[in-house]
Amino acid sequence: MTDSPVNTFLKENIRFEKNSETAVYIQIAQQIINAIQRGYLARGTALPGTRSFSRLLQVHRNTVVAIYDELASQGWVEIIPNKGTFILVPEQKTVTIKATHQHASPVNDYAPKTGFPFQSSFHLASTEEVSTTKYNINDGQPDLRLHPVHQFSKWYSASMKRKSLLSKWNQTTTSTHSNFETQLSNYLNITRGFHIQPCNIMNTRSTEMSLYIVSQLLIRPDDVILVGNLSHYAANMIFQQAGAIIKTIPVDEKGLDIDYISKHFTKGSIRCIYVCSNRHYPTTRTLSAERRLKLLELAKNHQFAIIEDDFDYDFQFEGSAMLPMASSDINGMVIYLGKLGQSLFPSFQTGFVVAPQNLITEAKNYLQMLDRQGDLIQEQMLSELIHEGEIYRLLKKNIMVYKQRRDLLCKCLNTYFGKAIQWKKPNGGLAVWLEFEPKISLVQLTEEARKEDLFLPKTILYQDKDICSIRFGFGHLNEEEIEIAVLKLRTAYNRITNVLR
């Protein structure tokens, strides 16, 4: 019996630590359960007697009794008097298994690496950074504290109770457009000057998902994509992952230099151009009306697509936001990307694509693979909020708050920095473009700011031989936090400039 396969297996694979906080009998029981789950110990297998098992593992017989009692209580073994202890497979598949932190044996080890090769991607390396500082600056994100939690709790609960949801989840055809697509297309027609139907729109989880799907439709390896010489890092990651060759064009006070494209690129050499509709990312410069017309004409003549990302349309403080190029595109050259509900919790926001029907139809085929189920409760609630005008009211309320924050930021920058930095007050958006003159090391500035409990992520820093700038996002900071952040930034700046002198 001592040389039986079961005994050999248990002797070679059971490990425990007597000094562990977890009792020895629990450690051993967990490893036996793991072996049963993995099929190493089959149903009906006889475990050694308590005396044999105690000698096998060199533990007290009472410990083995406790092990078997623990396994029996969870339904993993059956103890038959005068016959022995036998492996069972519990009917309840969700038996609670307490985690253990003792030395892992081959029975419950999980391989740290794959045993096969796969293709990794440099382009998709995460840009996320972790910081424990109290204050931080981002690239212009909304303040989630402004989300009306109590109101949304009621609206969400009401949406979940709609009987129509069950029929939507159980439907087997998609021959008609959803109520949400109808409401969203109506909303965009009113707010953005579109003349679209539900067949011209596709909603997604985010702008990034929208752009990823579009890139799969448009881009083939070595296709040329044009972006501004400073552009959105997330969009560039998506284009590069699709195999595109990214080429940059100059950006000045009037936005992208369209004449540069005419001079340096021939017909058929460009696959598409990525444009930020209202404010160029990251500089906040607005593409002029004249250049918009030139770009539409150039796209028609050169036969390339325009991806128009209108990521901050909702945040317009002075005047009216410029209508999207897509609203006046009669030749089907523009693919418009947007987001609804930016003042809400991310789980209530939705991205969308507006384009000619043939592209939307194909894009939805991709979406079915990525997100077949979607979020029907979210769509139901957003449909009602659009229909009842709540989305518009929430937006107007928050715009007033963000405008005050922008004005305070500009006042603080003037007070604490004066002529040490240059900036222009943007007419919208949740970020200000700061240019340091004379130039400093932004890496050093980040290090000094961290000492002041202020975090500057690398994604807001822009520096080369010609540029020394920061995209200062203020939307997530209240007025008190804005003043503290600017003061801390100035303190860090002073340390660097003193060193330089």
TrEMBL record:
<keyword id="KW-0238">DNA-binding</keyword>
<dbReference type="InterPro" id="IPR000524">
    <property type="entry name" value="Tscrpt_reg_HTH_GntR"/>
</dbReference>
<feature type="domain" description="HTH gntR-type">
    <location>
        <begin position="22"/>
        <end position="90"/>
    </location>
</feature>
<protein>
    <submittedName>
        <fullName>GntR family transcriptional regulator</fullName>
    </submittedName>
</protein>
<dbReference type="InterPro" id="IPR004839">
    <property type="entry name" value="Aminotransferase_I/II_large"/>
</dbReference>
<dbReference type="Pfam" id="PF00155">
    <property type="entry name" value="Aminotran_1_2"/>
</dbReference>
<keyword id="KW-0663">Pyridoxal phosphate</keyword>
<dbReference type="InterPro" id="IPR036390">
    <property type="entry name" value="WH_DNA-bd_sf"/>
</dbReference>
<dbReference type="GO" id="GO:0003677">
    <property type="term" value="F:DNA binding"/>
</dbReference>
<dbReference type="InterPro" id="IPR015421">
    <property type="entry name" value="PyrdxlP-dep_Trfase_major"/>
</dbReference>
<dbReference type="GO" id="GO:0003700">
    <property type="term" value="F:DNA-binding transcription factor activity"/>
</dbReference>
<keyword id="KW-0805">Transcription regulation</keyword>
<comment type="similarity">
    <text>In the C-terminal section; belongs to the class-I pyridoxal-phosphate-dependent aminotransferase family.</text>
</comment>
<dbReference type="InterPro" id="IPR051446">
    <property type="entry name" value="HTH_trans_reg/aminotransferase"/>
</dbReference>
<dbReference type="GO" id="GO:0030170">
    <property type="term" value="F:pyridoxal phosphate binding"/>
</dbReference>
<dbReference type="InterPro" id="IPR015424">
    <property type="entry name" value="PyrdxlP-dep_Trfase"/>
</dbReference>
<keyword id="KW-0804">Transcription</keyword>
<dbReference type="Pfam" id="PF00392">
    <property type="entry name" value="GntR"/>
</dbReference>
<dbReference type="InterPro" id="IPR036388">
    <property type="entry name" value="WH-like_DNA-bd_sf"/>
</dbReference>
